[in-house]
């Protein structure tokens, strides 16, 4: 799994500012993620920026007082850079090109993307970096179709973790399960929810997920009778890794970094840690283990 963070995006552009054509005087972001890239790049270059619709209508986003001395009438901008965060199929950037073609004959428009798939390099005039698939980005992870190929934890990801007092395996815990506020609410369907919540709390968990309109294909819970049995088993990361191993999911999204490392090493696959906001990769042993499983799975599918 190829992961890129907002920090990766920023560093990638900052390290490659020389790629921006000389004389560029206006940055245009392709909504929605392209606006993030446009804003960062405009800050690095001390240039004004706008979105595609604003550009079509001849509007530029307002700037602070520091940039006001550099602002010009819209008609005076001649070297325009249109930027996307990433290009894969090229459909969105092609739609923008169609919208802008012939609109301003007096302006030179150049198209770029921060991250581009190897097969799409001809869709833009230049790019900042190549990022092959499968790939996932920090800024749209919970709102991408790829989520259907992911395992996702509940506590610490979709909602906060219970406190020690709330986690009593009794009335306080049931109240927590019923009324805890949502944290990250995905707009796409999750492939598999994997949680160390006990199976006996499935009704409360399913009701909470339905109330917050969180869609998922499968919910896997720990089939032990009590919190005491769960603590005795002491296999929090191992349980999650077993589900990740058994299914051909691309990524596990976990809150705890120590569990994320355990899951990654046991499963031999990447885990994204919400708490530290970084991708955790398996160590050498875990990677070898994962490669062997991939090989065996492919071999079995041949028969």
TrEMBL record:
Domain Phosphoribosyltransferase: 18-132
Keyword Transferase: yes
Assigned keywords, A-Z: Glycosyltransferase, Transferase
A Pfam family recorded for this sequence: Pribosyltran
Keyword Hydrolase attached: no
Source organism superkingdom: Bacteria
Gene Ontology terms for molecular function: glycosyltransferase activity
Protein name: Orotate phosphoribosyltransferase
InterPro entries: HAD_sf, PRTase-like, PRTase_dom
Organism: Pontibacter akesuensis
């Amino acid at each position: 799994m190829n992961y890129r963070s907002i920090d990766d995006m920023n560093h990638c552009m900052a390290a490659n500012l020389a790629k921006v054509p000389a004389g560029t005087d206006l940055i245009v972001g392709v909504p929605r993620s392209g606006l993030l890239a446009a804003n960062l790049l405009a800050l690095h270059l001390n240039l004004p920026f706008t979105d595609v619709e604003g550009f079509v209508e001849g509007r530029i986003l307002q700037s602070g007082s520091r940039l006001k001395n550099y602002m010009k009438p819209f008609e005076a901008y001649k070297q325009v850079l249109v930027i996307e965060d990433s290009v894969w199929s090229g459909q969105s950037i092609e739609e923008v090109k169609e919208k802008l073609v012939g609109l301003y004959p007096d302006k030179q428009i150049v198209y770029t993307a921060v991250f581009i798939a190897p097969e799409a390099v001809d869709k833009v005039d230049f790019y900042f970096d190549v990022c092959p698939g499968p790939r996932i980005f920090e800024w749209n992870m919970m709102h991408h179709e790829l989520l259907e190929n992911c395992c996702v934890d509940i506590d610490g990801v979709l909602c906060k973790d219970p406190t020690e007092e709330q986690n009593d395996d009794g009335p306080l815990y049931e109240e927590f399960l019923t009324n805890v506020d949502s944290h990250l609410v995905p707009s796409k369907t999750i492939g598999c929810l994997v949680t160390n919540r006990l199976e006996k709390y499935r009704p409360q968990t399913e009701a909470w997920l339905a109330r917050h309109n969180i869609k998922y294909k499968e919910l896997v819970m720990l089939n032990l009778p009590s919190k005491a049995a769960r603590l005795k088993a002491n296999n929090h990361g191992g349980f999650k890794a077993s589900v990740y191993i058994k299914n051909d999911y691309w990524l596990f999204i976990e809150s705890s970094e120590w569990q994320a490392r355990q899951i990654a090493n046991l499963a031999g696959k990447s885990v994204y840690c919400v708490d530290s906001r970084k991708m955790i990769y398996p160590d050498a042993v875990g990677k070898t283990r994962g490669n062997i499983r991939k090989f065996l799975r492919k071999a079995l599918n041949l028969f």
